[in-house]
From TrEMBL, chain A:
<feature type="transmembrane region" description="Helical">
    <location>
        <begin position="135"/>
        <end position="157"/>
    </location>
</feature>
<keyword id="KW-0813">Transport</keyword>
<feature type="domain" description="ABC transmembrane type-1">
    <location>
        <begin position="63"/>
        <end position="251"/>
    </location>
</feature>
<dbReference type="GO" id="GO:0055085">
    <property type="term" value="P:transmembrane transport"/>
</dbReference>
<dbReference type="InterPro" id="IPR000515">
    <property type="entry name" value="MetI-like"/>
</dbReference>
<feature type="transmembrane region" description="Helical">
    <location>
        <begin position="230"/>
        <end position="251"/>
    </location>
</feature>
<dbReference type="Pfam" id="PF00528">
    <property type="entry name" value="BPD_transp_1"/>
</dbReference>
TrEMBL record, chain B:
<feature type="domain" description="ABC transmembrane type-1">
    <location>
        <begin position="58"/>
        <end position="266"/>
    </location>
</feature>
<protein>
    <submittedName>
        <fullName>ABC transporter permease subunit</fullName>
    </submittedName>
</protein>
<feature type="transmembrane region" description="Helical">
    <location>
        <begin position="59"/>
        <end position="85"/>
    </location>
</feature>
<feature type="transmembrane region" description="Helical">
    <location>
        <begin position="245"/>
        <end position="267"/>
    </location>
</feature>
<keyword id="KW-0812">Transmembrane</keyword>
<dbReference type="GO" id="GO:0005886">
    <property type="term" value="C:plasma membrane"/>
</dbReference>
<keyword id="KW-1133">Transmembrane helix</keyword>
TrEMBL record, chain C:
<feature type="signal peptide">
    <location>
        <begin position="1"/>
        <end position="24"/>
    </location>
</feature>
<protein>
    <submittedName>
        <fullName>Extracellular solute-binding protein</fullName>
    </submittedName>
</protein>
<dbReference type="Pfam" id="PF13416">
    <property type="entry name" value="SBP_bac_8"/>
</dbReference>
<keyword id="KW-0732">Signal</keyword>
<dbReference type="InterPro" id="IPR006059">
    <property type="entry name" value="SBP"/>
</dbReference>
Length: 264, 275, 380
């Protein structure tokens, strides 16, 4: 009995710790006025929503920027990661471990100092403050994850199935298209979603490479927060929260434990 | 199977991207850190200045990120452990649904959440005052090092817990059952039987978290950009206000050294155990 | 009927012809440092006005952020394009220290004599930026001033001097807040005021000559500031200080006067809060309009700045809407600006106090040393 009470208390504390800050954000997003010493907002409303979504405001532009950049990032990073994953998971690749290790390296170094130097290099190439520049930076980060997930997904495909198809006379491309790809697809979709989300949420790289010409939602949110516009920051944060939480709720459908276990 | 040549061709674009956007900038940072500011030439001048300007922040970063990693390890082990060994079906379902919420919430959003939540007159203190646990005059702001630690732990625990729970689910249940039949308590089971078997996943998750936290810029900027603060803020400041890449890169190298140290420590422990 | 159709179509035809002459759309690129209110000023007020007066032109504005970092971003943007023939930014709005650097680096165009409003400003800030001769390269957009804001409900005896503030803050732990030097200029201004008050001869720092020996007294002042920092709350920026004042988390702190009044005007700030300008003074600064040396649309840029520094815009936009002190000489605003709007600028700080206690920032050399020593001696 005591044990159940303790467990329930611990769970309740965890729920408070997780949902407290989120509730706070929701409150701020619909607040009109909230002065000290009021404990809760004095009035609620949608006037800040109108301000965020007014056509001349930069929130809509940032939202489109963010979505466009994220979509392009997925394309670029999957375009290089799927072949690489295939080679790592299925190929007779020399130095396979060395390559896998290499793709782990960016995770082993704090990315900020890489980002600030990319910014400096991009200045020279005229890529700073351009869509291409931001997409490249995001794609680099996304690629690292998608290479690992893709190689795990391809490695999890049973070779016997591919051989069976090959024995039936299917050509290599056909085998890939009809057997390997469909079987690895859930993992690849998961990695696509993952790359999309991480690009949508990316801050540091955009901060160095995109600013001030390219503003994405996280940067808009940061600026609003630093300017003390809590409502605008909270509304922007809420927009960013929706895809994050949706993905969190469905992740296990795509990323089976066996694929997860192969990461790391 | 794909031939050697085809495999190399397939992996080439990824390697090219990697070389251009990771290895080259990395090399750039090394060169720039050792380049003397005035008059050119090589030397450790940037590191001397880094220490002179930011020694407090260097120590602070290591302590804050280290402490956060430890707390993440503790909480993640508790959550994943309960998910694996817990018996109450109802509690399991709630926990499984609950713990992952912050998983994909970006750091910048987490920082904003905490900034309003942990402030002196933020929601947490207000709630405590309403409950009669505090008076308005005894509240204080958590927006200092504690705010950073809380945000990091809040955001990173689900990630490590997810990895860990995944690894634990893949374990062979028979050893666990055997130990359970011998009457081992759940805490002992977790510590003696389960955790040693998932060491690689656990270590990887923690090191990834450590590295991630070392390079987060938004959280310290929004929660505590003042004295002392994390190295990322100093790097951004050096570059944005002065264009001083030398000193910023020296700080970057110091951050590399810290993660290197942690990774080495972990690998060495692992080797010892395997011997 | 035919006439009716012709009447309807005529404006359309004219519009089409008009756009044809103006070579479709041209865009004027404006880069502005400073807080969000400066971006809003161009987006919501000045830009639309320029577009209305110059059909075929649209104004694109990017904000590069507060403090020296914001102006440094513009400096780097221009430096990066140095070798090119045509640069992508037409008008820049920057703070003094970095503008001076840009003039020294030859990144700016001498334009003030080319525009009509150039002679409306005679003050020293238009000629000299922290010791660097910038005559002809800049037009002040506005002058802004820092001051100490406080909550009268929480502060009984308002300190009137820097030493009074020091003693008050040390007696009321955590009730004084400022934003250090990394996050906006109001914290830098407070640090400057501290050095002016406790670091030796302030006049030499403002007027020169530059001599390291003058910094002898700084060590003691910075040591005292380090002790002082133990009893203050750090805020996350210019806006952060105002926000914490508003939420009752601090009772006193340095702010920009214009932001303070604007927030009150917007209803974002508790109307009971007040500001004061303590002895021996706190610094203020102009923001400058300047044109990059190889701006692609230099002529339009001159038109834009002439509009921005005309008495009407200075009265309506700068003073009335955004609560800055005007960039051009105040005498030119007479007759254009109503007395009530002018008086509003002096609600809490009367003109005499302003004349006595409003100081410039120190000379470039001292300024840089001061920021550096703050990091090595106070925060580390």
């Amino acid at each position: 009995m005591l044990r159940t009470v303790l467990t329930a208390t611990a769970l309740a504390a965890l729920a408070l710790a997780i949902f407290g800050p989120i509730t706070n954000l929701l409150l701020w997003a619909f607040t009109e006025t909230w002065y000290f010493p009021a404990k809760l907002p004095q009035s609620y409303g949608f006037s800040f929503w109108e301000r965020v979504f007014r056509p001349q405001g930069n929130a809509m532009a940032s939202l489109w920027n963010s979505l466009l950049i994220a979509a392009l990032t997925v394309l670029v990073s999957l375009a290089v990661a799927v072949p690489a994953g295939l080679a790592l998971g299925r190929g007779r690749l020399p130095w396979r471990m060395a390559f896998l290790f290499l793709f782990l390296l960016p995770q082993a170094f704090p990315s900020i100092s890489v980002h600030m130097n990319i910014a400096r290099i991009f200045y020279g190439l005229g890529l700073n403050g351009t869509f291409a520049g931001v997409v490249l930076v995001h794609a680099m980060q996304g690629m690292v994850f998608s290479v690992w997930i893709a190689s795990a997904a391809f490695a999890a495909v049973d070779p016997a199935l591919e051989e069976a198809a090959a024995n039936l006379g299917a050509r290599r491309w056909t085998v890939f298209r009809t057997v390997s790809l469909p079987l690895a697809l859930p993992g690849l979709i998961a990695s696509a979603i993952f790359v999309f989300l991480s690009s949508l949420d990316e801050f540091t790289g955009t901060f160095f490479v995109g600013v001030p010409d390219i503003t994405t939602l996280p940067l808009l949110m940061y600026n609003a927060a630093m300017e003390g516009n809590y409502q605008i920051a909270s509304i922007t944060a809420l927009i960013l929260l929706v895809p994050s939480i949706a993905f969190m709720l469905v992740i296990e459908r795509f990323l089976k434990a066996d694929v997860l276990a192969r990461i790391g | 199977m794909i031939s050697r040549k085809a495999s190399l061709l397939l992996i080439a674009p990824a390697l090219a991207l990697m070389a251009a956007l990771f290895l080259y900038p990395l090399g750039f940072s090394l060169v720039s850190a050792f380049r003397q500011e005035d008059g050119g030439g090589w030397g450790a001048g940037n590191f001397l200045r880094a220490w002179q300007f930011y020694s407090a922040d260097i120590v602070f970063s290591l302590v804050i990120v280290g402490l956060s990693t430890l707390l993440v390890a503790f909480l993640a082990a508790a959550i994943a452990g309960y998910l694996t060994l817990g018996e109450n079906r109802w509690c399991l379902a709630v926990l499984r649904w609950l713990y992952r919420w912050p998983l994909f919430i970006p750091f910048v959003v987490a920082a904003q959440l905490m900034r309003t939540f942990l402030a002196k007159n933020g929601m947490m203190n207000n709630a405590l005052v309403e409950l009669g646990l505090l008076t308005p005059f005894t509240t204080h702001s958590y927006l200092d090092w504690r705010g950073i630690v809380i945000t990091f732990v809040w955001k990173q625990t689900p990630f490590v817990a997810l990895l860990l729970a995944g690894a634990m689910a893949a374990l062979d249940r028979s050893t666990i059952e055997a130990a359970r039949n011998l009457g081992a308590s759940r805490l002992r089971l977790l510590w003696d039987v389960v955790l040693p078997q998932v060491r690689p996943s656990f270590g990887t998750g923690l090191i990834l978290s450590f590295v991630t936290m070392m390079s987060v810029l938004s959280v310290p900027m929004m929660i505590n950009a003042q004295t002392p603060t994390l190295l990322t803020v100093d790097m951004a400041w050096r570059i944005n206000a002065y264009g001083d890449y030398g000193l910023a890169n020296a700080l970057g190298l110091i951050a590399y050294a810290m993660t290197g140290l942690v990774a080495w420590f972990y690998l060495r422990q692992g080797l010892k155990e395997n011997r | 009927m035919a006439l009716q159709i012709a009447k309807t179509l005529l404006p359309l035809a004219l519009t089409l012809a008009g756009t044809g002459i103006a070579q479709a759309q041209d865009t004027l690129y404006v880069a502005t440092g400073g807080s969000q209110n400066m971006v809003d000023y161009v987006t919501d007020y000045l830009g639309p006005m320029f577009e209305a007066q110059n059909p075929g032109w649209s104004v694109n504005v990017v904000g590069t952020g507060p403090g020296d970092a914001g102006s440094q971003a513009i400096l780097e943007k221009l430096t990066a394009q140095k070798a090119k023939d045509s640069w992508d930014t037409d008008v820049i709005v920057t703070a003094q220290l970095k503008t001076a650097e840009m003039v020294k680096d030859g990144l700016l165009m001498k334009y003030r004599d080319d525009i009509d409003t150039g002679k409306l400003v005679t003050s020293d800030v238009a000629k000299n930026a922290l010791g660097t001769d910038v005559d002809g390269y800049v037009m002040p957009m506005f002058i802004s001033q820092t001051a100490i804001a406080y909550n009268p409900a929480l502060v009984d005896h308002v300190p009137t001097s820097m030493s009074g503030i020091r003693d008050w803050a040390e007696a009321h732990k955590g009730a004084f807040g400022y934003n250090g030097i990394k996050n906006g200029m109001s914290g830098v201004a407070f640090t400057t005021a501290w050095i002016y008050a406790f670091g030796g001869d302030a006049d030499v720092l403002m007027k020169g000559p530059y001599d390291k020996a003058q910094e002898a007294g700084w060590d003691k002042a910075f040591a005292a500031l380090k002790t002082f920092d133990q009893s203050v709350t750090f805020t996350p920026g210019n806006a952060g200080t105002l926000d914490m004042l508003n939420r009752g988390e601090i009772a006193m702190g340095p702010v920009w006067v214009d932001m303070f009044y604007s927030w009150q005007q917007d209803g974002r700030l508790n109307p009971g809060l007040k500001i004061t300008l303590p002895e021996p003074g706190m610094p203020g600064q102009p923001y400058y309009y300047a044109i990059p040396a190889k701006a692609a649309h230099a002529e339009a840029a001159k038109k834009f700045i002439a509009l921005a520094t005309s008495p009407e815009v200075q009265a309506e936009g700068i003073v009335k809407k955004f609560n800055w002190y005007p960039g051009i000489d105040a005498s030119h605003l007479q007759g254009v600006l109503d007395q009530a709007s002018w008086d509003k600028l002096f609600t809490d700080i009367p003109p005499e106090t302003l004349a006595k206690n409003a100081k410039p920032f120190p000379l470039g050399g001292y300024f840089t040393d001061m920021l550096e020593q703050y990091e090595t001696q106070v925060t580390n």
